[in-house]
Design brief:
By secondary structure, the protein is mainly α. It is 79% helix and 0% strand. It has one domain. Helix 8 runs antiparallel to helix 9.
Length: 234
């Protein structure tokens, strides 16, 4: 299993991906420093706005999509999945290792710069802790969903971007019932609650804001195992 994990990880962590996504992380830090240097009357609100509008709306889902959609999607498309599929390894273990590799790649790329950006705003420890929790939770949830998406359809990167921009950006962003089905909305609610943000940003209870994203991840991974078990691999 360790060899399989290292194989998955090596295929995900490329110089091109790290350079591109690292630039997005650096931008987050620059934005945090700029907010911290300003004379705003509400640093907590401004910090929450940065983490929510840049981190949870763009940086976190896109970064996780890049890694998670490719971890099984790339070998599925180029025909090398058959070599993994023929290994004497339970399908759920294969999915678990692939997802763990995607998370190993995505979590530090996302969480570290966003946490540094939150600290740079000067909004206090509460925002830093909230950012750490919300971005970590969202990354785990997106990893489960996008690992399934990568195995399920071709060009998963494009479909994943469409989901991020259309569903979570516009449909769920309008509020109402649709927002309760969006990972971003729950992560944003957790962020606002932990950072003592404005009450209108808190849409669900603390338990719900954690349970729904984790439930989405578990459900998606179960579907990934089912798909890997039933599909024909050639």
């Amino acid at each position: 299993m360790k060899a399989l994990y290292r194989t998955f990880l090596a295929t995900q962590v490329t110089k091109g991906r790290l350079a591109g996504l690292g630039a997005l992380g650096a931008l987050a830090v620059v934005l945090g420093v700029a907010l911290g240097a300003g004379d705003g009357d509400d640093p907590v609100g401004a910090g929450i706005g940065l983490v929510s509008s840049y981190g949870l709306a763009l940086f976190v889902p896109v970064t996780t999509l890049v890694f998670a959609s490719a971890v099984l999607g790339e070998p599925n498309e180029d025909g090398t999945l058959v070599y993994l599929w023929l290994r004497p390894v339970a399908r759920w273990r294969l999915v678990a290792v692939a997802t763990a590799a995607a998370l190993t790649a995505a979590l530090p790329v996302v969480v570290v710069p966003m946490t540094v950006a939150a600290a740079a705003t000067g909004a206090g420890t509460g925002l830093v802790v909230a950012t750490l929790g919300a971005t970590s939770l969202a990354t785990v949830a997106y990893a489960g969903v996008f690992t399934w998406l990568g195995l399920r359809i071709r060009r998963a990167l494009l479909w994943g971007l469409a989901y991020i921009l259309v569903w979570e950006g516009f449909v769920a962003g309008a509020g109402g019932t649709a927002s309760l089905l969006a990972i971003r909305a729950h992560a944003r609610s957790l962020l606002a609650r932990l950072a003592d943000g404005a009450p209108e940003l808190v849409e669900v209870s603390l338990a719900t804001s954690i349970a729904v994203p984790l439930g989405a991840a578990v459900t998606a991974l179960a579907l990934t195992v089912r798909r890997l078990t039933r599909q024909d691999v050639a």
